Amino acid sequence: MAQTKWTEKKSGDIVFVSNTGGQQLGYATTSGVKILTVDGLAFKDLNKNGKLDKYEDWRLPVDVRAKDLASQMSVEQIAGLMLYSRHQPIPAAPAGPFKGTYGGKVFAESGASPYDLSDQQKQFLEKDNVRHVLITSVQTPEIAAKWNNNAQAFVEGLGLGIPNNNSSDPRHGTVATAEYNAGAGGAISMWPGSLGFAATFDPKVVENFGHIAALEYRALGIATALSPQVDIATEPRWARVSGTFGEDPQLSADMARGYIDGFQASTGNKEINGGWGYGSVNAMVKHWPGGGAGEGGRDAHYGYGKYAVYPGNNFKQHLIPFTEGAFKLNGKTGMAASVMPYYTISFNQDTKNKENVANNYNSYIINDLLRKKYKFDGVVCTDWLVTGDETAVDVFLSGKSWGVEGLSVAQRHYKILMAGVDQFGGNNEVAPVIAAYQMGVKDHGETFMRARFEQSAVRLLRNIFRTGLFENPYLDPEDTKAVVGNPEFMNAGYVAQLKSIVMLKNKGNVLPLQTGKTVYVPKKFTPAGRNFLGMETPEKLEYPVNMETVKKYFKVTESPEEADYALVFISSPNSGGGYNSQDAKNGGTGYVPISLQYGEYKAVDARATSIAGGDPLEKFTNRTYKDKSATAINVTDLAMVNDTYAKMKGKPVIVSVNMANPMVFSEFEKNANAIVVDFGVQGQATLDILTGKTEPSALLPLQMPVDMKTVEQQFEDVPHDMKCYTDDQGHVYDFGFGLNWKGVISDARTAKYKVSVKP
User: Fold this and answer.
1) Are 106 and 464 spatial neighbours (Cβ–Cβ below 8 Å)?
2) Pairing mode, if any, of strands 739-740 and 743-744?
3) CATH number (domain holding residue 534)
4) Where in the numbering of this chain does the Glycoside hydrolase family 3 N-terminal domain appear (predicted)?
């Protein structure tokens, strides 16, 4: 009999097993799983059959294990694996689209702990065999860890013992008013937004972020990141520009590679095999084949933005961040684990079947390009709600079955499967996937359809095996507390924020400002409106920066007459998404311009006839907005700059812009002595730049247009095709422009990425 080479340690209901020279295991005493000893080593008997199956043998290659498990799964179990849950706040919300109950009661009335499973979670995990869960808000990292342990114990006791692969949208954004303290931790480390990473022009910064973020994700029980978003931002009006790495294909590819290498690579004792392991987070790169070319800048979360257009015949450049970045990693994992196609219909780009259907449904775009031409054999997961029925052209939570609105829900699932997709985002219900399977059996026979299901199952299981979840999906909440948001990670995030702030103007070298002087900071008015999700946002009048933090740098006055400097914090213009429901109700088409300036803009130079159009809920196909007008919702930001300039009577006015999209600077630039731009930072980081504590080093990842005429004349699918704004210092706000204390930055980064503007 072989000598036993393992030991175990119990922590509550979790038993941790250490194999000498092998994998650490974790299992729940409540799940019914037992340990098998083979060759003196310990293995989990996940299907409780008393023998070691190939999929339970951690010594075997991942694909051998995945194929063995896929062959044992029922059609219903594979169908459940293909589902991706709707958004799950922990604990569940009492109302709204993400509500849940505990014993039939809302959380506050239930007596449940915040880390208990909701009724709905138990339902979709057990009855629908869901194993991919999208986590949103959590009360604390420890609660997230305890919820993870409860959820993993629950599914470990079901069927074949397949663990959950929990995921998250990006969760490392900044709170602008949060104070940074080098010695203190936080809820999670805070980093600049994606455009901020791009503004560093340094892929190593984003790779370091990916590595730290992955450690924090895994400590929260998250093994898949629904990121990075690598669409090139060729259309400056698009609502999702802020989530990209800018408009340059090569910079985006380099940033994508760094990000994914950081997230996916495990090193040292965390590595299991091939760079994968307990430190790895599967990256789901999005949105294939690029979503940044929406006509007129409208976004495809809505029916009014369903079409991506290519007037510059530049479809291929949009693939570069994927083919040259996400699929060509420097690290051992090789390529991104998963890909998410975008909602858009890539208009007239299907050269094989001539189908104008959303990318998730398009066999040419998924099977022919992604799978065959670019050899991607990872998971392809639809974006959320693509199989649902469209209820209105302007509602965020409506279904987004663009181009296939006439098909039934089950037929949509079938078409998606046949296009080469493995997984359905935001669908907790297994019934339409089973119905799609039956359609396939009818068309192709049982053998074919079973093989098609197992093909997707292997891809999906691979990502769960590689990250070590079959061996040990459990967490120690105390370890989680020590890892997430620890001071070292908070500091790394703050340093990256400093590297992401662009100085555009420094007239007369007014910067850096002298600390201890007196500053005037006007309050910022935000009118009532709606956010990207369509939810109402209240009117606000408040300081746009933490004034207690400002007081650590300057004396503060409410009187411009007493001030040495004025600091004005504004946001880039926001004129909405390009559709006005009231216009539609009044007999118009609803289509209006998206403006990148604050003041009223009339679209005299817009296309008279849109390139694409058509929706079952519309009686027309021409989506032009020519000669219609738009004004930024936050037009008061412009007034704030110009009013402050007048009140300061020649004393320096420093403008800090939080930028989500390119903008027209001509409306206020001359009334600012200095301008800095950030893409999501703590206000304190901006103050450290303004006072010279850190020298600015970032560069613009986007062009700034001279006016809206150049925006209308540029092609939605082409980068670097706008005439750029020139300020009163003679500087051109082009891609790659930025200042430091010595002047215009010219270094290895600008040499590598610089693209000359086409007038």
Assistant:
1) no
2) antiparallel
3) 3.40.50.1700
4) 118-462
